[in-house]
Amino acid sequence: MAEQPASVRRSWIRRAVLLGSLAALGFVVVVLVGWVRDHRNTGWVTLTGGTYNGVGWKLQASMTNGKLCMQLTGPAGQSDPANSAAGYPGQCQFDRSCQLCSYTGGGMGPADSQVAYGPLPVNATQIRIATHKVLRSSPFPGGHGLPKGRYWIDIHSATWPASSPADGTRLATPQPLDAQGHPVKFKNF
Asked: In terms of pLDDT, which residue wins out, 112 or 76?
């Protein structure tokens, strides 16, 4: 077999180096895109809102460093001692990976109420918060960088469940349920 001229060998070597470089660059891009996707930050998205005893509220969500954050807010300029004293509750990272982390958020809400909320997996269309009280969940809106999943919220009197005996006993940990009422495991958000 005849030996190839040096210019042909250099051409093949350049092509091999170029292909190897492109493959390495492609790998770096894939890794970088994955990292950015997992650590993206979004603006706050309003999920739902309403009033409780005449005081307005909004439940909002965002992504911060790859973790879901949710917060309850009140309308700007609205006078509510609970919101102006310490603010309504907010939480990032809904899982059990740290001592202060949990699958649910909550605390003091508008007009001396209590609020509880949190994210749920896609198949959890409802959540039981008391022995006889089940709430519907709603899907996170698409197109805002939020994860696939659902959310729930409950705003109730500070004396609940005593103020609503028909609701039964409050569950220490709410139970996500599918459409047929079967238990569903929480998902880390």
From this structure: 112
What is the distance between the alpha carbons of residues 127 and 105, in angstroms, rounded to a whole number?
14
User: Residue 121: which domain range?
Assistant: 45-177
Contact partners, residue 10, CB within 8 Å, separation at least 6:
none
Residue 181 DSSP label? S
Let me know whether 49 and 33 are in one domain: no
DSSP state at residue 98: S
The verdict on 139 and 65 lying in the same domain is yes
User: What is the mean pLDDT of the segment spanning 92-121?
Assistant: 91
pTM: 0.75
CA dist 110 to 48, 59, 86, 134, 135, Å? 15, 12, 12, 22, 20
